[in-house]
Amino acid sequence: MVKLTINKIPVSVEPGTSILEAARKVGITVPSLCYHKDLCIAGNCRVCLVEVKGERTLTASCAVPVYEGMEVFTNTLKVRNARKNVIELLLSEHRCDCLKCEKNGKCELQDLAQEYRVEEKSFIDLSIGKRIDRSSPAIEKDDSKCIRCQRCVRTCAELQDVSALTVARKGEHMFISTFMHKPLADVVCTNCGQCVNRCPTGALVERNYMEEVWEAIDDPKKHVVVQTAPAVRIALGEDLGYDPGERVTGKMVTALKRMGFDKVFDTDFTADLTIMEEGTELLTRLKQALVDKEKVALPMFTSCSPGWIKYIEHEFSNNLDNLSTCKSPQQMFGPLAKTYYAEKAGIDPKDIVCVSVMPCTAKKYEARRPEMKASGFRDVDIVLTTRELAKMIKQGGNDFRHMEEGEFDSLLGKSTGAAVIFGATGGVMEAALRTAYEIVTGHEVPFPNLNIMPVRGMEGVREASIKIEGCVDAWKFLEGVELKVAVAHGLANARKVMKQVAEGTSPYHFVEVMACPGGCLGGGGQPIPTDMETRKKRAMAIYEEDEHMEFRKSHENPEVKLIYDDFLEKPLGHKSHELLHTHYTKRMTK
Amino acid sequence: MVLDRETKLKKLKEHQTKVNMIFQDQDCGQMLDKCLSMSPDEIIAEVTESGLKGRGGAGFPTGLKWKFAAEQKSDVKYVICNADEGEPGTFKDRQILEEQAAKVFAGMAICSRAVNASEGIIYLRGEYNYLRPRLQEELDAFNKKLKEKGFKFSIIIKSGSGAYVCGEETALIESLEGYRGEPRNKPPYPVSHGYMNKPTVVNNVETLVYCAMIIRMGNKEFLQLGTKDSRGAKVFSVSGDADVEGIYELELGMTIREFVDLFGDGDTKAVQVGGSSGHCVPRRDFEKTIIGFEGVPTGGSMMLFNSSRSMYHVLHNYLEFFCEESCGQCTPCRVGSQQLLRGIEAIKKGEKPPEYLNELKKLAETMKVAAKCGLGQSVPNPFLSIVNNFYEEIIF
Ligand SMILES: Cc1cc2nc3c(=O)[nH]c(=O)nc-3n(C[C@H](O)[C@H](O)[C@H](O)COP(=O)(O)O)c2cc1C
Ligand code: SF4
Ligand code: SF4
Ligand code: SF4
Ligand code: SF4
Ligand code: FES
């Protein structure tokens, strides 16, 4: 342990701890902007300056490790003046229009300006006019609000290994750009929104579609249905005054009903459906490979994360056959709402507006893919993030905390614990195994209480293998097979797994990939801030919810059984192919 | 006392007979033999006792740097010769490389023995690429000689990426590694985590030549020159309103007055010591200002201004340079430089009152202590020294 003093308070921390972290440990806050717990240290914003005895200059506390006997002062006049100057400089470059800004009230720059009582323009206004890139349907980039902290650049490079964003030019002309300064829609960006989630200001935000939703609700001719993804309910509370990890499922449903949606459905229902389709697809591929000796692409990869889909389309376009052809649960829901539900409810599908609430920005892009029109209409019309929903709940004027618990509407509203865990990395794998194993053997997966612990957790790549024993007749060829699976989250980890596939050395049968660290619970559309601690709390909430569910296996979902009986007939059947499966597109690598 | 040009040149010649280490021809084979006859500790002691400080601008004691690097335990260590020379008005490293490249190589080899490094890299300013074929030829011969003499060390040349900031040692290393030339956070310093995260000594071209000479001749001669804080001599690039221009090796510790008498045109009103990032010394301070680490340190650039020059324009030029050449990553430097520039423009145009200069001075003080690297930290040097000494020229 290293002993030092901060503001004369003795502190003892692990070697290698930064001054900033050491200070936070003893309850001293040091302001920061470029620092983010998930990212490597940049040390470029310079608001975290402190005084270290014996140093000629001030020290960036985020970037400098402590040493024995160090004497740190975090709140001297010299420090305060320098920090204030730095904030003034940032604001002088900044197009301040807080009232109109997406980040108003949730902006780290604004908070600091308030804390340091900085006047908006103490220096000469250097801000550039609006320079907004709205080419992507998911993400909006506004250079005039950028403080060049490079959190986005580090996110895209370190966590996602995509490097769609780079630092361009130098000096006064330095800015955050893309390959050849192309619009975001024309580069390798996956729309994952992880950069948005880490941008301290309004420079990177999701495309906001709140107004479109209010308009649809207000239109008497429209029948507006909403679906909510599994990871929304365990994080929404954070933007409404709850602590990370508090589930607000029932209140969320009530809030949506009060906002005026005609039906409040659950994406969890189509998550269960995904398992039925994807599980069957996996088993079919295994049969083709093992019995029919056909050439079939293995390992099979999950396909519910649209950021991951766009990534593989760019980076590993020779391996698109390895992707499951299943649409994501969001995109399975859309066409079912406009066919099955429309039929049952007797509503003309052209009058149905399908809204979805997602933890994800990439889903905004996914909904607009040209092929996503299986119902004959745009399957999903408007995609909101968890953050947008929180804002709309506030706009709606409802007291969320005191709202009663509501229930999802039926037909597309019932779900199981298997669907709930889709929100966490490893969840799709666990759900698929619970079902597939039982189809093949007739009994439950051999893990206590159905909890497949080896695929849970926050390790970047996790692997597991299950020996298949006691197969029923139809699946006898799988008797004794070691089913090898892997789980990766964050695209940098996906690349590790994909590399093996591209090189032909992958040992797995089935791999789950989620574009975002932690899976959907850490999605780009989730409440900010996100860090490992928050992600772990959200994951705990998800597994808790699973344990409390009446059904915990997708194939036990009564509404899923009903839809197969009434409409789809069987997994991978003709209708399924038409509505629930898709194809992929090769894309350029720059 | 205004001397005519002839007399100045004569006096300079006299000076040069006393001080002639950099451009004196030497047998590099003998230098290497001498080096081999000494232990690493002895080499470091010899350099340390000479009092030599880095000639690249920052003035870090060279012996100490080598000692730190020598103490690191690592299978691979590097010696980098900083030949990025980007400071406007500085061209001494170019001349040294043109005339005495072998001595630069020898300095690197000596360093390699001192710190136990296996690879040497010369980071050559992009604009000096025309030197490369000749340098490479000499280097090939030198590498061969190293091998013959049993050194486990060889040197390669890499071209710089054309930005001033890449002369800053950690930006230089980033650039060598193929990244954008952005200075790193320090600590850790290159001596422990440098190129490829391995212990690395970065030295200026001129520093390395002095090292070679100190090893060749012992440090006695070096110690006789200069002052307590500024041992030895250094190479100056003299430009501006000068009667005599060019590259001269001069003893450290002379006053600006003595310097101006040797080089000036008789009407010198200010000398910018150390280039754009250095200090501007006004005429009234010529006598009392010593050229050296106790007074005004310099990487070698000496620019003279006579009374026909507008110091506003001089400052304006420097600030424009920094607005352009800042790497742009840190707030105080990227935005601060622009504010200083736009600020003096606004005052000049009457858009801001003269008192606004006080805000700018406070900002300059912040930049000194808040910027991430030497570039941003030294923008205030020309700013404050010109604004404080030529207030009227800035305001009116
Ligand atoms: C902006 C900036 C530019 C620099 N440019 C150079 C340069 O061109 N050449 C050089 O030798 N040192 C340059 N330096 C200093 C180097 O960072 C480093 O201190 C030096 O190379 C160490 O060598 P020395 O100890 O032999 O002087 C620069 C420093 C800064 C901050
Ligand atoms: S980014 Fe922050 S400071 Fe800037 S306009 Fe938006 S809320 Fe205000
Ligand atoms: S959305 Fe994702 S892929 Fe696109 S720039 Fe941001 S982090 Fe990179
Ligand atoms: S876009 Fe946001 S995260 Fe990226 S550099 Fe600008 S302010 Fe920082
Ligand atoms: S001081 Fe200037 S050059 Fe140095 S890191 Fe900061 S912006 Fe870059
Ligand atoms: S938070 Fe430390 S420099 Fe930005």
What features would you describe in this structure?
The complex is a heterodimer of chains A (590) and B (396). By secondary structure, chain A is of the alpha/beta class. Helix content of chain A is 34%, strand content 13%. In chain A, the strands form 5 sheets. Chain A has a 5-stranded mixed β-sheet with strand order 2-1-5-3-4, with helices on both faces. In chain A, strand 8 (166-168) and strand 9 form a beta hairpin. Chain B folds into 2 domains: 25-223, 3-Layer(aba) Sandwich (Rossmann fold); 311-390, de novo design (two linked rop proteins) (Up-down Bundle), CATH 1.20.1440.230. A 5-stranded mixed β-sheet of chain B has the order 6-5-9-7-8. A 4-stranded parallel β-sheet of chain B has the order 3-2-1-4, sandwiched between helices. In chain B, helix 6 (132-148) links the parallel strand 2 and strand 3. The longest helix of chain B has 24 residues, at 92-115. At the A-B interface, helix 2 of A face helix 11, helix 12 and helix 13 of B. Bound molecules: flavin mononucleotide, iron/sulfur cluster (4 copies) and FE2/S2 (inorganic) cluster (FES). The site of one iron/sulfur cluster has 13 residues of chain A, from helix 3. One iron/sulfur cluster binds at residues 94, 96-98, 101, 103-104, 107, 109-110, 145, 201-202 of chain A.
State the secondary-structure class of chain A. Answer: alpha/beta
Which superfamily, in CATH terms, is the homologous superfamily of the largest domain in chain A? Fe-only Hydrogenase (Larger Subunit), Chain L, domain 3
Helix content of chain B: 40-55%
In whole angstroms, how far apart are the ends of chain A?
46 Å
Overall radius of gyration of chain B: 21 Å
Relative strand content of chain A: 5-15%
Bound molecules: flavin mononucleotide, iron/sulfur cluster, FE2/S2 (inorganic) cluster
Poorly predicted runs of chain A? none
Within CATH, the superfamily of the largest domain in chain B carries the name: NADH-ubiquinone oxidoreductase 51kDa subunit
Count the strands of chain B? 9
The biggest chain-chain interface is: A-B, 38 and 37 residues
Q: Which overall shape of chain A is indicated by the principal axes computed on the Cα atoms?
A: globular
Q: Let me know the largest β-sheet of chain A.
A: 5 strands, mixed
Biggest sheet record of chain B: 5 strands, mixed
The assigned CATH architecture of the largest domain in chain A is 3-Layer(aba) Sandwich
Within the largest sheet of chain A, what's the order of strands? 2-1-5-3-4
Radius of gyration of chain A: 25 Å
Number of strands of chain A: 18
- Number of domain modules of chain A: 4
Q: Kindly report the CATH topology of the largest domain in chain A.
A: Fe-only Hydrogenase (Larger Subunit), Chain L, domain 3
